[in-house]
Design goal:
heterodimer; A: alpha/beta; Fumarate Reductase Iron-sulfur Protein, Chain B, domain 2; five-stranded mixed β-sheet; four-stranded parallel β-sheet; 25 helices; globular; B: alpha+beta; Uridine Diphospho-n-acetylenolpyruvylglucosamine Reductase, domain 2; Uridine Diphospho-n-acetylenolpyruvylglucosamine Reductase, domain 3; Vanillyl-alcohol Oxidase, Chain A, domain 3; eight-stranded antiparallel β-sheet; five-stranded antiparallel β-sheet; 14 helices; 38% helix
Amino acid sequence: MADKTKKQGNFAPGDAPTYESVLQCMRCGFCLPTCPTFVLTGRERSSPRGRVALARAVHEENLDFTEALKQESFFCLDCRACTTACPSGVKAGEVMEVCRSQSHQVFPGGHLSKSFRNFILKRMLPDPDLLEAGMLPARLYQRLGIQWLVRHSHILKLGPDWMDKAEGMLPKLDAPLRGQLPEMTPAKGEKRGRVAFFLGCVMTLLYPDVSRQTVRVLAGQGFDVVTPAQAKCCGAPHMSEGDRETTRELAKFNIDLFLSQDVDYIVTDCAGCGASLKEYEELLAEEEDHARLELFRSKVRDVNEFLSEVGLRTEELQEVKVSVTYHEPCHLCHAQNVSAQPRQLIRSIPGVEFREMKESSWCCGSAATWGLKFSEESQQVLDRKLANVAATDADYLVTTNPGCHLQLAWGLKQADMPQPVIHLMELLGRATPD
Amino acid sequence: MASIAAIKQLIDKLGAEKVVAEKEDLLTLGYDSTPGLLHLPEVAVYPTTVADVQTVLGIARDEGMPVVPRGSGTGLSGGSVPHQGGVVLCLNRMNRILEIDEENLTATCEPGVITLDLFEAVADKGLFYPPDPGSQKISTLAGNVMENAGGLRGLKYGVTRDYVMALEAVLIDGSVVQTGGKSVKDVAGYAFKDLLCGSEGTLGIITGITLKLIPPPQTKTTMLAYFDAMPRAGEAVAKIIADKIIPSTLEIMDNATINCVEDYAGIGLPRQMAALLLIEVDGHPAVVAEEAAAVEKVLRSVGAAEFKVARDADEAASLAAARRTALSALARVSPTTLLEDATVPRSRLADTFAEIERLGEKFRLKVGTFGHAGDGNIHPTVLCDERDADEMERAHAFYHELYEKVLAWGGTVSGEHGIGIAKKDYLAKQIGPAGVAVMRRIKQSFDPQGLLNPGKIIAD
């Protein structure tokens, strides 16, 4: 967060990386081997260390906020692998995220990508039959981050053949889950607490069955599950495209909504949403009451983190005889530092054989819209992942984030590989008796 | 200076995809890991063949343009910083492991191979490449050779130079020299490869490296000891060696570092302790058992306050956690982290720590020290803020006085980081005018125009 009165070198007024956040880099280079775009290009400016150096140069007035820096800020996958690797606590991904918002200030205008909008509107909606049945009221759709992307994607430059890829990636669409889930799903067995479920946009639209399982698993584990129907998008798509103001509005709304619920925890099954919710505190640090932000932050949990923390009740779990490997979503392992917990859960399910893959925390190349903007590079990042999946020869590929899910399922299909992709909650759902 | 004509020639002869001159590229190729250094080159090239390197040197020679080789830019003395402009020769795309020869126990590589990639490739064949500089996950082999990089295993296994069997280098006149080979013994003529090791790109550009491999140790034992007084830790180090045990790891951390690690990681380190020693012995199981017992005996005899032996790999990893976290913990304390590598004869280790403490107080600086105790090679790390000119001045005065003491004790101004730009003056003090003069004559005979990484190592 920038102090708006502070001089920010050659950065435009408004959100800009703080000088401290870039000065902290000691240029050790430990981030370089963890960065997918540096590994692809071998070019220092496309590395976390290089990007931070460019932001620093803008601060020190050695560089204008150039088109090339704008490109670098969007070429960064924001996978945060560099944050994990950095000894001195530099968050290069966040620095680039803020630079994306600078891009809007420095290069205003641009126009809506019509083909993108049409694609979303025509292809991503379920069958007209479903519409007619009133399963997707328009007002519901308006709250989704996906619609925002359509409306505000001034600088969303898509790669060649993106539409084929996007079309190929879409799973078979069902009715959105929002509106179907009861406001309250009661705990089963001995009650252990009461949680709010944050249902993400992509989850409700593309993976309703996954989140249905999540709620079922949570209830089966002894928690009353409250799902507030009014919840808005977590703001991750807006943040990712550089619109920090809209993200702040959404954050304020969601904080109000969820703090008004009488719950012990706020749980989500989308790693992207979880990372975003956990960053509200920092995003609103200068505008909101600190105690409220802290309270909200203290309640947010990724579902894997949550179940591992409260302890999985395994007595009643049914055997699931499959072998699985696990892909770590960047926004879970790097952005939230949740890495051991999903493995613990997998190992606790009776019958499941867990096979660790190499480089499990290496990005899959999805990264919000990155995979559509840089489709060639995305394919190269994906190929590396698929080779590691293939080497495990596991029956299933487990992950816990819809962006990864889409990319991996598409990649596996393209490569003619046998593994279905499933969310960890689907696996746990199979083990949970009715 | 690189003229526009020179850049055009580079593009014509190498192709546009190998030449970059955008400001964003130049800004990010003007530094390495040395704090405070940034100098923009005028152009950078990414050669992929020996012929490309020859082409660049030819154009440089005709244009009188400095040439600065660069691997991954993780050096700690400014070796790859183009402080006189010119062309940066980025060798990281020449990154193929050409051969692993299991009969002769050698590996032959292009210059840009990542150190850890080679380690893993030879480990797959049951072999071992020991040099493990702190940046091994990204440092390049040619960078290691040019700086003669060390690492945690230096005490028992030596440094990069000890593993270089042959080098291929392009000289500024365009000729290619092959020096050394796969023969274990080789005393034919001047030892050019030894001269090239640690020459920081001032004599020639390395395009090929043949390294010695060894069989890996069969097992290891990890131990951790705490001391309530630094002299006792120094005594432990000296006695372990005097007992004719050469541990594979003998690492030290001082009280300030212990506390920084505890602040950052909260792993339950005893904050009051003056020092921590991490010790590993490796080799044949019988030898390891015997050496571990002997180390334990030494630690008891010098009065270590606490002492642990890892029973398995997990426990070994947890004992090593503090040392592994040292740099991260220190680097988070302040914006600027100055990391030096003073090295003394082992018998002076405790004196050196005492001197660091005294100077830290004298100059009112926050200093954490860790390093390779067994090598007498330690990293007094000043945690400061480069925006504070007065503090930076005090930090430099701190190192200045420390190095005077180190030299008086028969130590060296660099154990493993090289001289580059940062330590030229210290080196001149260490080797004297006669030493500098002979270095200058050597440089002159390899590079009469003074184009290869000019201004490095040798004081002006």
